[in-house]
């Protein structure tokens, strides 16, 4: 989004849904892991 003649800003929010299954040593350790991070970004740009 332009905020001035040569300046712009960008704001971004995302949510990822990742699910994994882990088995170690032939099944001695079993785990279901859900990793659901929020990713937030902010950008500032200047056009020469």
Order of helix and strand elements from N to C terminus: EEEE
Looking across the biggest beta sheet, what order are the strands in? 1-4
Number of domains: 1
Low-confidence blocks of residues: none
Task: Kindly estimate the percentage of residues that lie in beta strands according to DSSP.
Answer: over 45%
Number of strands: 4
The general outline is rod-shaped
Give the helix proportion (percent range). Answer: under 10%
The number of helices is 0
CA radius of gyration: 20 Å
Q: What about the largest sheet?
A: 2 strands, antiparallel
Residue-averaged pLDDT: 87
What is the terminal-to-terminal distance? 16 Å
Instruction: Decide which structural class fits the backbone.
Output: mainly beta
Brief characterization of the structure:
The chain has 48 residues and is mainly β. The protein has no helices and 4 strands. The two termini are 16 Å apart.
List the SSEs and their pairings:
Blueprint: E1 7-15, E2 18-24, E3 29-35, E4 38-46
Antiparallel strand pairs: 1-4, 2-3
Care to describe what's here?
The protein is mainly beta and 48 residues long. It contains no helices and four strands. The chain has strands at residues 7-15, 18-24, 29-35, 38-46. It is rod-shaped. The chain starts with 6 loop residues before the first strand and ends with a strand.
């Amino acid at each position: 989004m332009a905020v001035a003649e040569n300046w712009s800003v960008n704001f971004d929010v995302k949510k990822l849904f990742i699910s994994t299954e882990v088995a170690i040593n032939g099944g001695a350790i079993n785990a279901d892991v859900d990793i659901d991070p929020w990713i937030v970004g902010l950008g500032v740009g200047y056009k020469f």
